[in-house]
Amino acid sequence: MKPIRISYFSDILCIWAYIAQIRLEELKLAFPDQIEIEYYFVPIFGNVREKVEIGWWDRGGLIGYSNHVKEIASKFEHISVHPDIWTHDIPASSVSAHLFLCALQALEDRGSIAKSECLLEKTAWALREAFFTKLANVGDLSVQFLIARELGLPVDAIREAIDSGEAYAQLSKGAELVKTHYVSVSPTLIFNEGRQRLNGNVGYRVIEANIRELLHSPAGNHSWC
Question: Which domains does the chain have, with CATH numbers?
């Protein structure tokens, strides 16, 4: 039986995606050979000033949004956020970080790095953790390369994938899928060839139940989920 393909869309600056990472790791442990997660990015924070500074101007602006994020984070013991989150060294956009991660995907696709090394997942987590716990401006390319060096990533190959346009092609592929599946929430999981969708802060057991239903449904039958 072919693995169930899960398309996972997230924004690197999204608190809910930061929280949800542990659920993905648990899924991979529970279904090591039965699922295949494909990572894509949705630019919820494509224009941070528009979304946060302007979008939250009547709710306290950056300070209000910072308090909102800290309140959310306080409900989850497995993550932490810096007390000054969203008030200092704020990225202008998440798209630059997404492009950087797409460069890694391009290297995976051409076999320059093995998917089994999970470098994409490790790097996405490192960027999220650096932003939320250290206030690192992960929208800055120099910060991205600094993190890459700390992880021992092939920096020259990543730079070449960006310069050559491969990373942009990968980013564009994800953007087309965002439009095709009308993705507007981070994180979003789409599986069963687009017929099933889970948006936002969905608990692990709900995700697991959907996967188990697909695994146990006879071939050609529709899932009851």
Answer: 4-216 (3.40.30.10)
